[in-house]
Amino acid sequence: MHGEFRVFMHTLAKPTTTFLDAVLTPAELKKLSLEELNSLANEIRQEIVLNLAKTGGHLASNLGVVEITIALHKVFNSPKDLILWDVGHQAYVHKMLTGRRHKFNTLRQFKGLSGFISPFESEHDAFIAGHSSTSISLAVGMVLASHHLQQDRKVIAVIGDGGLTGGMALEAINHLGYIQKDVIIILNDNEMSISENVGGFSQYMKRIRETFFYKDIKRKIDFIEDKLDQANLNPAVKDLIQIVKKEAKDRFDTPGIVFEKLGVNYSGPIDGHDLGAVMKALNDVKDKSTPQIIHVITRKGKGYAPAEADAIKYHGVPAFALEPALTEKAEPTAVAVQPKPRTYSDIFTEALINIARLEPNMVAITPATAEGSGLVKFGKVFPERFFDVAICEQHAVTMAAGMAKLGVKPVVSIYSTFLQRAMDQVIHDVAIMNLPVVFGIDRGGLVEDGETHQGVFDIAFMRSVPNFTVLAPRDARELRNMLYTAIKESKGPVAIRFPREKAVNASEIGDPAEFELIDLTKWQVLRPGKPGAGVLLAYGAMVETAVQVLPELNRVGIEPMVVAARSAKPLDVSLLQKVLRDPKNRIVTLEEGQLTGGFGAAVLEYSSQLRQVDPACKLADIVNLGIADKFIEHGARPILLDEVGLSPAKVSAFLQKYLKF
Prior knowledge:
The chain is an alpha/beta fold. The chain folds into four domains: 261 residues, Rossmann fold; 43 residues; 165 residues, 3-Layer(aba) Sandwich (Rossmann fold); 136 residues, Rossmann fold. Helix content is 42%, strand content 15%. The strands form four sheets. It has a seven-stranded mixed β-sheet, with helices on both faces. The chain starts with a strand and ends with a helix.
């Protein structure tokens, strides 16, 4: 978008936080009255808005759970009682109330507070959380362990309606209903996930929201039950009334009955912003010995009008992107809007749209990441060829396999860290059948969200699966042509990974409707270099880093060959043999991924194979640069790249030391 438009600009002033200042731990919160707790809720919302204007983060979801979080800490005793937050990005309020408010301005900053739940931060974080649909399974495991160890504690799982669409959550509810243990599930129903919730279960939850009939009729049945216990009735009459009551209960076409049929007692729906009602609901079930689900209706972005109006936009926000808080006045200021640089996600979606016009049998599939990956645009152009299957990564992959078996050309758009959840399906349903499913692996490499979201394992785990072609583009043009070639010509599965970054050379793309078939298995020599000056084999995003360090290397007399190695599997064995068989060469591989089993490991494996064929051969030395065998914390990508030795400065320093004769 070009031109100018008017937005509100202002300096956010820090409001009074009398009650929040006093609540250093949950113990102080328990002393507050209901009126004081409501004032605390207002202060918390102001604090979230102000801090996220500086740090960025998940806004809408956290504004929606303020009352739920306060009620949980009022009624239960953390950390003795275990509160499990599904995904964990909605636990900012929990962090504030458990001794971390003074660090809140470091949220998502390097060495600061994590944007997700982390037991490494606080004993109040019962388990790590970054992926969806895990909390109820964890709760089942923990309640069973607590009973076995004879521990007196409650286990509470907080899960959203989006998380409840995940198969793992439904599996856990099925098991919980069978074992009848005292897990309390808080269903935070705000119709919120990364993208719009879809599927039959989501529609079922919508019907629950739209009727309070079930709650009313259940209250009346419970009332009748109480009166029957007091009445002196003929046993036959009493039995008849019990039968009628049971049949009536079974025949009500009411939404909550599904949970009860599974063996989990249902309460609700209740207003999740009525703090008194939420506390009452928790108190009503906290001493029950059977599984309970409390259905709480909340409003995403509650208390902050821009987020209430567009919760998907404000699901996650960058720093300095927030409009003024409602309590503040601001004067309109005209500002010029600069067009945003196009990301690899943008390039991927644009290419899919244009390829779909050429390939009528191509379809796009995503597991609830349409907004984050940019596929919303594809869905608007080709709604009948777009499938968002909710938070069901396993289903997305096997569904794609079924489509491919019958001749459709499916492209699965999925984040690297979420693809991990579907590896059995990748192997069992796609690779063994050698089906032409294309995987567009977004967020490949380092991201700011920390250990649970780092996309650094996909090179290794995809390379280990037979029949796969594993690719990474060096720039926007190559991504487009890779995708086009894979869809057009591939006879087996193809994985194309790209980072969460602005796309290199995006401005150099000409006619977006034009594509070029390329040899996916052939690497490109970008700089021939001087004999014996070293060879840089760079994979994907690291090609740009290799190019960036050349001027500094040249300045000190080092002129290495630079190779854009677009395929980690298969390797370009003809080019690789050429550089390996020159013993004067020093080869350096670069990849933004785990070294264990990664691209560099593939080069070393091939070198070993050459030695097995010819034990007397003299081969070049090889050094691998990548991410060591450890989990990487949260922080901005440039900082993390520097920490792991992959920033241009660190790569240049290493190469000068290694290649200097």
